[in-house]
Amino acid sequence: MDFIRSKNIFLLTRDTLKMMDNRLMKHGSRVAYILYRMMETAGGYEDFEMAEYVMLATLHDIGAYRTADLSKPLTFETKDTLPHSIYGYLFLKYLSPFEDRAKILLNHHVTFMELAEKGEKEHMEITTFLSLAECVDVYREALGEKFNVSSFRPFEGKRFSRQALDVLDKTMRNCRLFDELDSEIHEQKLNALMDSIMFTNEEKKRYMEMIMYCLDFRSHMKVFDTAVCISICSQLAGYMGLDAHTQEMLYYGALIHDIGMLSIPREIIESNRKLTDEEFNLVRGHVHLTRSILESRMEPDVMEIASRHHERYNGSGYPEGLQGKDMTEAQMILQLADSVTGMINDRPFRKGLSNDLVKDILKEDMRDKCYDPRIMKQFMAHFDQIITQAKQQGEDSLATNSLVRSRYKKLELAMNRIKKK
Ligand SMILES: [Fe+2]
Ligand SMILES: [Fe+2]
Ligand SMILES: [Fe+2]
After folding, report:
1. CA 221–ligand 2 middle distance (angstroms)
2. Above 80 in pLDDT, residue 25?
3. Which one of 30, 147, 308, 334 has the minimum C-beta count within 10 Å?
4. Sign of the dihedral through C-alpha 319, 320, 323, 324
């Protein structure tokens, strides 16, 4: 998988989440930077290890996108800390290659004393560093100039580990930590560190899929839609005889084609009323956002497949009104697959259309040459088979996603029971 560099996976993940809530991601970057500086001070970490922990720390509040009211950041970080810790843990455990370190997220608000009482051994140093880094940033944001790290010392051995507090003090003596956090320097240094991150092809694939699962933070239907769309694409690619390399590019293009939707408010995406012109234009703008977030990060061919998915063979699409001759087969396969997905799947305002109705609509589209006639011919020839298999694959991916939600509910109940004892 050479469509994206390992470092760009980090940048893409960070910027995708930034689209949803810039403030929360900035907090993630600052916490990651404090952790990075603390790891440097403590010593014993290779650059690639620090880079991996930095990526994890950047995502430490990822669960909050699902569980918290982001307009009240201090609430989920200081009072009701369990939901986002649990959801983040499950998200990383089941939907990312971080499964072996997901527990760090589960414990990032647990006190040092509780961790010690539980006999927690795994990732203790990083967990205690992250927990302290989190508090430094949250309280600095809340108290501004009045914040002083020495105010944490009385909680040594209880809320925070002595080692973490000592390492933080030493870090503060070694560098101008707060000045760096308040300027661009921290992001620049994190970006430079990420040159050392190295993922295997399998890890890259799973991270890209994790980015796709983020769509669920905006709309329950989007993950199902994407899985159905990918399946239609791969079946059509087979019937059209695309080579393996192009098929792989099409897979990644289809996987992230709607990533720009993350910047659109949930109320608009899931609205069951007619959108206003302004809202409609906002939704159409998702293709620009998909392009801008993938540009210079992803192989241009993959980026074009993704960002041209609303163009049409006859030039009636958007944003550029391109024609068939300007587009590749892979791009045009995704165009048809995405439209069919929109027809067969439920929408907030209607149920999925019947196969017969979809066929009727597509026959009309055929007359208007909305889609590449050769691709359309293959699609119509294998209609039932393609739709049945696509729906099955959609269900499978949704099952993984629902697993996170159902486990979250069980875990939350169990944790609350423990807390009450
Ligand atoms: Fe946080
Ligand atoms: Fe948190
Ligand atoms: Fe789209």
Report:
1. 27
2. yes
3. 147
4. negative
